[in-house]
Amino acid sequence: MKFKPLHDRILVERIEQEAKSAGGIIIPDTAKEKPIEGKVLAVGDGARAESGAIHPLCVKVGDRILFGKWSGTEVKIDGQDLVIMKESDIFGIIG
Prior knowledge:
CATH superfamily: GroES chaperonin
Structural class: mainly beta
Distance between the termini: 26 Å
Shape: elongated
Largest sheet: 6 strands, antiparallel
Order of helices and strands: EEEEEEEE
Strand content: 35-45%
Radius of gyration: 15 Å
């Protein structure tokens, strides 16, 4: 894939959760919620300050992250469903 986000944007692949509840009940696709966990596939260079300096992003390619359920913009690149979002939409990095 040849895609580079600009500025403070990142490209994320959603990570699907288990299709079974803790009690063993299988959850149908229509009842599932959107995943809020993802893997960072690409990052921009960073946010530009008013002075012109670039502040690098805290996340890097390969990080597993948590983000808001409705964060970002869903896109399809090379047949893959992905999300482009700003770094400020991320709640944290899963370590």
